[in-house]
Amino acid sequence: MTDRAPQPVDRQLPTEESRDLLALVREIAQREIRPRAAEEEDAGRFPREVFTLLSDAGLLGLPYPGEYGGGEQPYEVYLQVLEELAAARLTVGLGVSVHSLACHGLAGYGTKEQQAAHLPAMLGGGLLGAYCLSEPAAGSDAASLTTKAVRDGDDWVITGTKAWITHGGVADFYTVLARTGVEGPKGITAFLVPGDAAGLTAAVPEKKMGMKGSPTAQLHFDGVRVPDSRRIGEEGQGFFIALAALDAGRLGIAACAIGVAQAALDEALTYALDRKQFGHPIADFQGLRFMLADMATKIEAGRALYLAAARLRDAGKPFSRQAAMAKLFCTDAAMAVTTDAVQILGGYGYTADFPVERLMREAKVLQIVEGTNQIQRMVIARHLAGPETR
User: Fold this and answer.
1) DSSP reduced 3-state for 79
2) Is the pLDDT confidence value at 2 over 50?
3) In this structure, what are the phi and psi dihedrals at residue 130, rounded to the nearest 5 degrees?
4) pLDDT > 50? residue 1
5) pLDDT at 105 over 70
6) Global pTM exceeds 0.90
7) What 3-state DSSP class applies to 41?
8) Distance spanning both ends of the chain, measured CA to CA
9) Distance of alpha carbon 40 from alpha carbon 18, whole angstroms
10) Is 81 in contact with 57 (CB distance < 8 Å)?
11) How many CA atoms lie within 13 A of 127 on its CB side?
12) b/e per residue 272-287 (b: at least 16 CB within 10 A)
């Protein structure tokens, strides 16, 4: 094996504390996540013990307030943690991003009493969350959701079906968007629903082409009763809360995509330096060198784009357009880079003996989740040219 293997990403981090944090994440990824990733993904095994470890290490609540057990880290740092985790195993990196998304509503719009009651366990108490917006007939058009929450005294009774729920059936809590009023976005309210609530059941997880270790399932709400104290924000404010969460979540997807792409580049570069044909490492051939250069350039550009959006968020400035751009560019880049990695490995790249075929399958879903890339283009265009006039 060549001694010119890829080096860890040279990250520009704001503090010594953040540099120590990334070193800890790399150590956990190398020791606890990467060695078992291929075997467990192939077996469809969800690594719940890894999320418990990450919670114990304070890594499930990084961007949230310290008073409730969060890490008080800026998004600039949190996203680079996600990138490292996703490079080791996307099921873990994306899982942390989804958990953070599930905490966003309560952390940003809950009352002080709600936050004190629930956030410590959600951020550092070993719990795992999920986010319930999509439905079988309401995906990109999320404002048309039909799951209903009806007031009954001091309680709400939720009835309906949610679809494509990451951690569906294994989460300890769900942030659920349900209709409490008129049709459209103004009639939607957010709720925090316990994972063991009576009347809440999960369907058999979907059979997916990638991320087989991460359960994705429909959730059925059959008269699930939750107290009004678990309503997040005001009645009718739910869709606004959901969109704010998705802006932040899209940055998480962008960071995960760059992690997957970086892992694919590292594998392709190591292979190209070691594999010899015609008496030379194949990395000596210009055709391959140009492919590697293009792959690295896409990764650097994507990383710069998501970090620029994160710094806007950290500064309290609008970042919705930049988040959509980052999600769009980074996930398209991940698909391109992983496809090229398979090509560089040739026949070996198409086998499960090497991880690049798994990375390629995983990259595809990132162009779909949390708003397809076609939706991202619509968001960007609206920021540029205003709403459609049709």
Assistant:
1) helix
2) no
3) -145, 165
4) no
5) yes
6) yes
7) helix
8) 60
9) 30
10) no
11) 22
12) bbebeeeeebbbeeee
